[in-house]
């Protein structure tokens, strides 16, 4: 599976991969494990906290989540 989800409607930090796309946690301020969940419309990799997206992330990320 090579497809990556394109996630739209993100804030700037979310789109830059600096904040959770689900809860908006600021990864520059909050140390929380996070996993790639797809890409923004600009092609940047975006992330969600492991607690925010679990099985959904595993599917979206093609099994990258551990
Ligand atoms: Zn989150």
Any overview of this molecule?
The chain has 66 residues and is an alpha+beta fold. It has one domain (6-60). Helices cover 15% and strands 21% of the residues. The protein has two helices and three strands. It has helices at residues 12-15, 55-60; strands at residues 6-7, 34-40, 45-49. A three-stranded mixed beta sheet has the order 1-2-3. Strand 2 (34-40) and strand 3 (45-49) form a beta hairpin. The mean pLDDT is 84. The structure holds zinc ion (ZN). The site of zinc ion has 7 residues, from strand 3.
Q: Largest sheet, order of strands side by side?
A: 1-2-3
Looking at how many chains there are and whether they match, the oligomeric state comes to single chain
Strand fraction equals 15-25%
The total number of structural domains is 1
Unreliable sequence segments: none
Shape: globular
Ligand names: zinc ion
Structural class: alpha+beta
Tell me the number of strands. 3
As a percent range, the share of helical residues equals 10-25%
Distance between the termini: 17 Å
Rounded mean pLDDT is: 84
Number of helices: 2
How does the major sheet shape up? 3 strands, mixed
User: H/E element string?
Assistant: EHEEH
Radius of gyration: 11 Å
């Amino acid at each position: 599976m090579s497809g990556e989800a394109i996630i739209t409607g993100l804030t700037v930090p979310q789109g830059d991969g600096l904040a959770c796309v689900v809860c908006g946690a600021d990864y520059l301020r909050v140390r929380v494990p996070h996993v790639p969940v797809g890409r923004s419309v600009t092609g940047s990799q975006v992330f969600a906290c492991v607690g925010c997206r679990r099985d959904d992330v595993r599917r979206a990320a093609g099994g990258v989540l551990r």
